[in-house]
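Mods, move this if it's the wrong board.
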Amino acid sequence: MVNAFMGASDELNILLRRRIHSTKCEINKSQKIKVEK
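Not the wrong board. Structure tokens:
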């Protein structure tokens, strides 16, 4: 039970990191577009 929970939390952490990274990229893109305009 503990190992399964640990594995699930690791996957959640990876998904959260990817989501945070993608949102940061989106923010950077929108900022660059504003600067170019």
